[in-house]
Design brief:
This protein has three domains: about 70 residues; about 190 residues, Rossmann fold (3-Layer(aba) Sandwich); about 55 residues, Winged helix-like DNA-binding domain superfamily/Winged helix DNA-binding domain (Arc Repressor Mutant, subunit A). The longest helix has 16 residues. The chain is about 45% helix and about 15% strand. The protein has about 375 residues and is α/β, with parallel strands linked by helices. The strands form two sheets. Strands 1-2-6-5-4-3-7-8-9 form a nine-stranded mixed beta sheet, sandwiched between helices. A three-stranded antiparallel beta sheet has the order 10-12-11.
Length: about 375
């Protein structure tokens, strides 16, 4: 539990938070009043009376059970924390944004909040290629010393978290619900791993269920914790663009990864690039442009698939080149390749195996193939 707030104080904060989390200005004022009373040594009954009076003026009744839930949650594990803006452990970059969340629940390593972070976000329905690229970038960025922050959603978020874990680095998942409610449930095991190697974070009271209106609020925290935001793949209507807009408003860097012009999930990134976002074709594109970050370790020399565009030309036969040209960075099935190249299915299967051995394509889920980024001669 956070050392800056005792168990009694945490319960009082939780009661105010439960009633006023949708009114951050009033919540901040109420927390200040309670903190002043406690600092002056006011008896508990006076503090509780102030809580009751504050809420009653707004037509609200105190939910004392919220305090009990918070005390029980905090008491279970020393890795659980409840922070207010006044707490020294509150992340300084987040405190600097307009209207920072007055209260944060944190489950995991509290020191992660102050670490140099990069937000990595994108589509929930991301292509296989984009998920793998996000994972590769996150792994290498984590090895370079950045913590990776995202929202635990399917698609790019989950890939980014997993990449940071793969790289032995730290990662933070920001929730659009209570930190005790894992959403989506399918990412429960991933959330457990994140807690062990980073932290789960939420501005919502314990027990809060996910509601669509909560996710834009969540997105401002993702960008607010980080030095910059990388958008890997996003449609024009994607919530990831909301995160990018928050980052711009907060004075943070925005990076976007280009994609195929035929992929509608690339249009959001292309729009960001047209509007002045920094192009992210490699990890170094991010590291050299990221302010206030000093790499703690040398960048690994082995290049990920997304960064091999200019490496080692590979010589292909005419038939191999024909099959290769029918592949893309989006998955292509064998039948689709057969239809395009005019060769037989056995020929295509044999050639794909050879191309995979040469490292210019690779198999992905569903029996499809994608280019790796190596350039054939």
């Amino acid at each position: 539990m956070d050392k800056g707030l005792d168990i009694e104080g945490a319960g009082i904060v939780a009661v105010l938070h439960a009633g006023l989390h949708s009114k951050p200005d009033r919540l901040t004022t109420a927390l200040g009043t309670v903190a002043a009373l406690r600092a002056a040594g006011a008896p508990l009954r006076a503090v509780l009376a102030a809580v009751r009076e504050t809420l009653s003026r707004l037509g609200l009744a105190p939910d004392w059970s919220a305090g009990e839930r918070a005390r029980a949650w905090l008491g279970v594990d020393s890795g659980r924390h409840l922070l207010t803006l006044a707490d020294p452990a509150y992340p300084p970059l987040l405190a600097a944004i307009p209207a920072p969340p007055p209260v944060l629940y944190v489950d995991g390593d509290l020191s992660c909040l102050a670490a140099a972070q990069l937000a990595v976000v994108g589509s929930r329905q991301a292509t296989v290629s984009a998920r793998e690229t996000a994972r590769e970038f996150a792994s290498r960025l984590a090895k370079a010393g950045l913590a990776i922050t995202s929202g635990l959603a399917h698609g790019i978020d989950a890939a980014a978290h997993q990449g940071a874990l793969d790289g032995g680095g730290r990662t933070l998942a920001v929730f659009g619900c209570g930190v005790d409610h894992i959403y989506p449930a399918a990412n429960r095991a991933l959330a457990a791993s994140i807690r062990e190697q980073g932290a789960l974070v939420s501005e919502f009271p314990l027990g809060t269920r996910p509601v669509p209106a909560f996710f834009p609020r969540r997105n401002r925290i993702i960008s607010g914790l980080a030095l910059g935001t990388l958008v890997v793949e996003a449609a024009l209507t994607s919530g990831s663009l909301v995160t990018a807009r928050h980052a711009l408003e907060q004075g943070r860097e925005v990076f976007a990864m280009p994609g195929s012009v035929r992929n509608p999930l690339s249009r959001g990134c292309h729009a960001l690039l047209r509007d002045g976002a920094a192009l992210a074709e490699s990890v170094d594109d991010i590291l050299v442009d990221l302010p206030a970050f000093t790499r703690t370790q040398p960048l690994p020399t082995e290049a990920g698939a997304a960064e091999n565009h200019g490496s080692g030309l590979v010589k292909l036969s005419a038939k191999q080149l024909a099959v290769y040209e029918c592949c893309d960075f989006q998955p292509s099935g064998v039948d689709e390749i057969v239809d395009q190249c005019g060769l037989t299915a056995p020929e295509v299967s044999s050639i794909l195996t050879a191309l995979e051995m040469k490292g210019v394509v690779r198999a992905v889920t569903g029996g499809a193939y994608v280019r790796t980024g190596k350039i054939p001669a």
